Amino acid sequence: MDATVPSASVAFTPPREGRLARLFDSKAFLVAACMLPTIGLLGVFLTYPLGLGVWLSFTDTTIGSPGHFIGLDNFVSLAGDSVFWMSVTNTIFYTGTATIGKFALGLWLAMLLNHHFPFKAFIRAIILLPWIVPTVLSAIAWWWIYDPQFSIVSYVLVNVLHVRSSYIDFLGTPWHARWSLVVANVWRGIPFVAITLLAGLQTISPSLYEAALLDGATPWQQFRRITVPLLMPILAVVLTLSVLFTFSDFQLVYAITRGGPFNTTHLMATLAFQRAIPGSQLGEGAAIAVAMIPFLIAATLLSFFGLGRRKWMQGEAND
Amino acid sequence: MTKLTRRDSLTLGAAVLGGTALPALGARAQQAQAPADIPIANVPPPNFQPEKGAQLHVIRPAKFIDPDQVYWDLNTKKYTEQTGVPVRVDYISWEDLRPQTAVIANTGAGADVVIGFSSDPFIYASKLVGMSDLCDYLGAKYGGWYDLALRYGQKWRTNDWISLPVGGGTGPTVYRKSWVQQAGFDKIPADLDGFLKLCQGLKKIGHPCGFSLGHALGDANGFAEWALWSHGSSVVDENGKVTLDVKPTIEALKYITELYKTMIPGTISWNDSGNNKAYAAGDIGLTFNGVSIYYVLKTSPDPKLQAIAADTFHEEVPLGVAKRAPRTATIMNAMLFKHSKYPNAAKDYLRFMMEAPQYGPWLSNCIGYWSQPLKAYGQMKFWTEDPKLKPYAAAMDTIYYDGYAGPITAASSAVTANYTIVDMFAAVATGSMSPESAARQAARQAERYYKTA
Asked: Which residues of chain A have a CB within 8 Å of the CB of B445?
């Protein structure tokens, strides 16, 4: 009996691949399959509402009636609406001043917190409080602080310190009201800026400051030449986020003034809500919200490209 | 949902009041007989035979005082016991009610009966079952409907009922009698000159008046509408054409500018709780408001607040050139949607709730938070037992409504929700705009909505 096996004739042939197996071997398919859930989630929760909002802005939909496509009519009508333009300038003013305030104070606070002092961790945690408290709650607190009859600030100034004879009308005139809202927004936004910048500051090597000190650099020069450039990448990100948050702010203004006195503190977000939901003009409200998009994109691009796109960010030397 | 947040302020009083009023509720609510003080005509009820296997889902505005819900629930339970039709009632917060109604109307599913606010039935008119059979019966049996009920229940310029007005809440003058007397007046003058003099007098003695001119949906719109209507002006005419930019409006603007000088500072930024707080603190001596201020004070355990309650009186708002009270009311307006599988049961339920044995106790325990749309209920003794309630008894006895004198449409609610009239007065009162340009601008703003309506 021949013990040898005719090995050549029974060489292993792999089983024929099923279509499914081949499909799953295809890289393109796998990529698509793995991304599908994400695309689905984004589609359902992001693209659909956004798309619906954009669509609504081109219709005359009201609460209770489906509405028809009317092209750019909503935008044309808004272009002739002084309240809308007031809300645009208010939003730009509010975003601009509040962002400057938040960054000036936030950076200052971050640099203070970057030093060693007792109860450092505890105080850093406390700093976050305005950011942690739900905005609606802090808005109500500010609303009390600004109350024309029951303001704690007025009470202290008039009844305790006797430096004023009458209560301050925080929200009664357009500019008082605007600045009051900016202060409330700055108060709320500082912790976010301070804590993120603090994180950025801690990545800067102390040896740089030591070297600068040996070269006889003044504190201002250290700040200007070491802190600011090295902080720039994180500054750009924080600034972008902060501008976006401030631009689309709703709760503070809605809880404190509801856009009053006579619409002089309406932001685009609050006006969009007022027109769409209580005013039942869904199409017009959506148009105001859509009108925010170009501003938001511009602000994002500006802060990102203006501040963030340095060569050294890509690992090259700065010019 | 106009006048919404005037009611919000009522929440303050709700807990306090409910606590004291409740123990007696159970026993009294069980009475099956109609209260003896309601004149009832002998009219046979229409035959709403509930469908076989019928069950109902009802949504209505959340309570602000406990008796509102307690009696509503008791009456509903009684209905189920008598007819075997199960009824589920959901109480929806005021802010959420309107969006929910919109969803129910647009999807054609959900509650059979929606008790919404004033103008809502007009927005969904094509989706509603007519109520004429029910409302004609109720009107014949209970002494007829007040004008405001006709306006908010019937389709414009017809006698067809599209909804059933269940009750209304209003805001007449609330004042401190001793201070008004100190200012030299026995009562609140019904003429505008006298009213201005009274407010000047109140300011002189250090107890000024206060009316919101801020973005306070209920209070500020109510005040601005009073100013307009009492001068004979209105946002639109009977055909829905904007008629704001006229002489009476200019006069109203000038009048409010004078009145504003007599107010406590800061009313420009008051929301709906502004006058409630200032009145309870003794900072103001006169305002327009719902019954909430009075009841919060009256039911407070604090003797200081009780003393203010004793000195607090109510009076109809000054008429000016108007013949009828130039103020409106927030209406609880019941709609029956066509998608309901049990329209007969729904109408029978609503009929049952509006009949004297049920409606009477509910109304009298709502103590003026809600007032009757049917005149017979105006005869109930509780309205006169506490004479201070008198102006609230007449809540729906007026011809004025949001969007007077035009048809009720989405445009009228948009003008209210956007504070168009309030802002016109506020801008002039603070000297930011001349009366003429403010009137012109407000007219333009109103036209943006009336054009599309």
From this structure: 81, 83
Question: What is this structure's pTM?
Answer: 0.84
Q: Which of B102, B217, B430 sits opposite A64 (nearest CB)?
A: B102
Check if the interface score ipTM surpasses 0.90.
no
Partner-chain contact A172 B268, CB within 8 Å: yes
End-to-end CA distance of chain A: 85
Environment class of residue A8 by beta-carbon count within 10 Å: exposed (0-12), middle (13-18) or buried (19+)?
exposed
Q: Give Cα separations from B264 to A163, B207, B413 (angstroms).
A: 21, 8, 29
Angstrom distance (rounded) from CA B81 to CA B28? 18
- Under a CB-based contact definition with an 8 Å cutoff, are residues B300 and B247 in contact? no
Average the pLDDT over B423-446 and give the result. Answer: 94
pLDDT in tens, B116-138: 998 889 988 889 999 999 999 99
Retrieve residue B296's tokens.
Answer: 């919060």
Nearest to A114, CA basis, from A196, A236, A4: A196
Could you give phi then psi for residue B190, rounded to 5 degrees? -85, -15
Nearest residue in chain A measured CA to CA from B449: A281
Question: What angle in degrees, to the nearest 10, is found between the helix axes of A135-145 and A174-202?
Answer: 130
pLDDT in tens, A41-92: 998 898 999 999 999 999 998 877 778 899 999 999 999 888 999 999 999 9
Most confident of A154-168, B173-187, B403-417: B173-187
Nearest CB to A172; choose among B106, B269, B448: B269
Instruction: Report which secondary-structure segment, H or E, holds A57.
Output: helix A48-57
Task: Please give the radius of gyration of chain B, using alpha carbons only, rounded to the nearest integer.
Answer: 22
CB B382, CB B375: distance < 8 Å: no
How far separated are the first and last CA of chain B, in Å rounded?
17
